[in-house]
Amino acid sequence: MEQQRVLSGMRPTGALHLGHYHGVLKNWIQLQQQYECFFFAADWHALTTNYDDTAAIESSTWDMVIDWLAAGVDPNLSSIFVQSKVPEHAELHLLLSMVTPLPWLERVPTYKDQQEKLRDKDLATYGFLGYPLLQSADILIYRAHHVPVGEDQVPHIEMTREIARRFNAFFGKEDNFKKNAETAIHKMGDLGGKYARYRKAFQQEGDLEALEKAKLLLESADNLPLGDRDRLLGYLEGLNRVILPEPQALLTPAAKMPGLDGQKMSKSYNNVISLRDDVDTVAKKIKTMPTDPARVRKTDPGNPEICPVWQLHQVYSDDSTKAWAKQGCTTAGIGCIQCKTPIIDAVNTELAPIQTRCKNFTESPELVRDVILKGNEEARDAATKTMQEVRSAMGLDYSRL
Ligand code: TRP
Ligand code: SF4
Predict the structure, then answer these.
(1) Is the CB of 136 under 6 A from ligand 1?
(2) Is the pLDDT confidence value at 58 over 90?
(3) Which domains does the chain have, with CATH numbers?
(4) Fewer Cβ within 10 Å of end Cβ, the chain: N or C?
(5) How far apart, in whole angstroms, are the C-alpha atoms of residue 55 and residue 66?
């Protein structure tokens, strides 16, 4: 049985921190057990805001991929690739741009938000406005079912769904659709019978599970001509071919990883623990974390609820350690350094295997290279197939050439 497909990307930011690990990577590592996963470095997306300084993009991509691998993203389970090495993304972006109404782009919340936030940059560019459409192309070109993203990205996935619907409405129309669909079912033999039963269960009884099963059946039917697959996908829910299926956002459980100051961990807040920080750096960073300001002396009782260290206990400590810290804090039984010690140990324990793998990949760049080359190829295979259908649906087959 074919697996459903997951796709996600990250802008190349260089070496990653614990916020990425707890917020994104642990999720990816889980997903790769269950889905066919594509993970990529969105280097073109980085250009939309950093077009004036491109010098670091390549090394940032490299470091980021190393950290993915170090964290446990497994190239045997997932395809790991670089966006700009699959130029089909750009072709689909261009073709989609033809049917994308400008207001759809202008009303995406990140458009105005980012322009406000990054005021020192001129983001009144064509490329920046197109950011979410490029993201739509990234997703649709893999016909991805699920896109793990944070809350802020959900509007981009929503727009992607709208773009897919619009594209299919324009280019999925077909004379004799019904007749062609029925012929296709017939040609499939036993599988066709199965498809027809699922379709009936969905259309007559609203059986959503049957709908999903029918979709998976179509994707795993290897010798089904692509045109027929699009036809039968569309025939499940309507009377158009579905060339670009609508993806679902897979909301990443809200990252509960606080930074050293209690705000969200982020490089721009300067409050991160990097995945590459050594044992002493981790200890120093945690030891100098602010605590309840009322605890000037060890004999002053404190209130964990207003202390960022307490938030870290929520991530790293078991119930008995948490009880010990709370009790010790509120009764002035322990000092803050004492309270921080189990967290320092837990973070270092978590980072040790990651850093061993990180060192291994850093010292053997040819391993990283092979991973990316293989991922690029796998991604291109999938992207090429979709583009053949897209071109054909748009009348750009040029079969005489
Ligand atoms: N915009 C995403 C972010 O900032 C990165 C991204 C680019 C992405 N293309 C994507 C994420 C496709 C998911 C799918 O995090
Ligand atoms: Fe924070 Fe722990 Fe100090 Fe209390 S004892 S203020 S929870 S670091």
Answers:
(1) no
(2) yes
(3) 5-172+247-256+365-393 (3.40.50.620), 178-236 (no CATH), 277-362 (1.10.240.10)
(4) C
(5) 19
